[in-house]
Amino acid sequence: MAINISAPAIINNIMTTQLDLEELKLNIDDLFLVINGIIVSLMQVGFACLEAGCVQPKNVTNILMKNILDLFLCAISYWLVGYGLAYGGGGCGYYGKEYFAGVDMPSSQKGVWFFQYVFAATAATIISGAVAERCNFIAYIFYSVIISGVTYPIVSHWTWSPDGWLMKIGYSDFSGAGTVHLLAGTCSFIAALFIGPRNGRFSTIAPNEYNGHSMPLVATGTLLLITGFLSFNGASLGHITRPGDGVIVANSVANTIFGGSGAAVVILILAKAGLVGESRWPFAMTINAVLNGIVSVCGGVNEYTHLSAIMVGMIGCIIYLVLQWIIPRLKVDDPLETTAVHFGGGLWGVIATPLFVKGGFWNNPDSMPLLKSNLIGAGSIIVWSVVNSAILFGFLKVFDLLRVSTDTEIIGLDMSLHKEQAYPVTNISIENGHKSNKTTVIRHAYDNVAMQHTLQK
What we know:
Layout: H1 7-54, H2 60-87, H3 110-128, H4 137-160, H5 165-168, H6 177-195, H7 215-234, H8 245-272, H9 284-296, H10 306-329, H11 338-356, H12 367-398, H13 406-411, H14 413-418, H15 438-456
Helix pairs in contact: 1-2, 1-3, 1-7, 2-3, 2-4, 3-4, 3-6, 4-6, 4-12, 6-11, 6-12, 7-8, 7-9, 8-9, 8-10, 9-10, 9-11, 10-11, 11-12
């Protein structure tokens, strides 16, 4: 028996199927962003472990609390102001004018909002490593809100919004070498400069006091950061349903690893040759070199060949080594080497993009114009970050909100600010072999303050 289907019914079925496919694509793209945003948010765990391992035991609770709160404080500031400044539209090349507090923001942008918010939180988190062990908690809240709500979003509007002025002149930065890392690295340097070095950091009395306390935490944090970077770079494409998307994402993820590989090879060779560091197999220096290599490829990670990514990571490692040698000699105390890793890697990443994409500058006629645009972009990001940071941290310093007192710093932020220790004090006094209560042991810490003051003088 023949079934007669009219032409209008066939057309209607085709149109319905096409609409369903388009809806499915949107859902897949949103899910792609949300899942990768969740993975990127694990970088907060990585930063927490890395920073906690690099500080003294008496400041670990403070570090953990700051990294946990980053996700929640930055969410409010980015929702109220940040996303509107970054992607609000309105035709202005310098900042967005819509979507503040989510007003009139299309529901279709919820996935984009979440993914971009995690980037904003990452930019703010990076700075905490540069001011660790002496930053006042109210200062941390203040700068986290401003960096994630104003400083970073305006730069991301310049570079990633269709209206952005840097986007229009040809600036290219796929996953934030300049937008995230150069900005955060610059802010970190200014923050460390304004807050000053940790008590006794550059004295010769106790040079090993600030070497950190837990290499397992440092290693765990680094591995989590690398995992987060894979989604950080891979999902920066913003979608996964268009032709060729899978190849771009896969290439970005692979090049993320290759960037770190190039840096790892260089640091191991130089250390083994006795040219850098005190150890022939340095652990902390290798970790930061690898992270710098990964940061360095962010600008063109989607277009690099694997060999190019390795070369970019290698050069990034050299830049890291130069900066991590120079900065302490400027008497700037950066406990996590945030400036060397993120400023150095971010700046090189912006410059490397036009030099190594599309066959390299020797084969790419667009390389020089792109280099010009990227240099303008890098300079603009640095100037914006310096001015904003100087105002922000200068304000906090003038009103004595930036740094804790010397006594508080010596006793430790865990007990002084939080009254909660990361590592509970034992009931056994090793000094005399007798049992003593916790209060007595803690009192000894307070009694030692005067003695440390005398030694540092």
